[in-house]
Amino acid sequence: MVFIIESQIAYVLDAVKRIRARGLRFVDVRPDVQAAYNARIQEKLKKTVWASGCMSWYLTRSGKNTTVWPGFTFHYRWLTRQFDATSYEEAKAIEARDQPASVAHAPPMTTSSRSFTLT
User: Is beta strand 104-105 parallel, antiparallel or unpaired with respect to 88-92?
Assistant: First the structure.
């Protein structure tokens, strides 16, 4: 599991580097890419022990398997070795001179001091 987490962190850091280098606000996975990925994962999960009728905390009430990865960790590492920008939509940053300054503040009637919005 640690190998998977390390791979995820490296992938995210690579994404952050791209966001900074290109001056982006954010990147968002394309819906078609996400749907295809989830379909492939669910297909692979049909061949695992979790699909044999056993009870597992990986399974939702509807029977959907939500495990992190159904294969070998080294294959996951290979797939996430670098950020795949083609799988994402990029949102360009808005120039500061083109909009009023943003202020972070707690929303009205919040119960958490960690909640905030940008306006």
Answer: unpaired
- Interatomic CA distance for residues 67 and 48, integer angstroms: 11
DSSP string for 39-108? HHHHHHHTTSGGGTT---TTB-TT--B--S-SS-HHHHHHHTSS--GGGEEEEEPPPGGGSPPP-EEPPT
User: What is the per-residue pLDDT across 12-43, written as a single tens digit (0 to 9) for each?
Assistant: 999 999 999 999 999 999 999 999 999 999 89
Q: The tokens 């949102």 sit on which residue?
A: 91
The whole-angstrom separation of Cα 80 and Cα 12 is 9
Is this model's pTM higher than 0.90 or not?
A: no
- 79 contact partners, CB below 8 Å, separation of at least 6: none
Cα 6 from chain centroid?
14
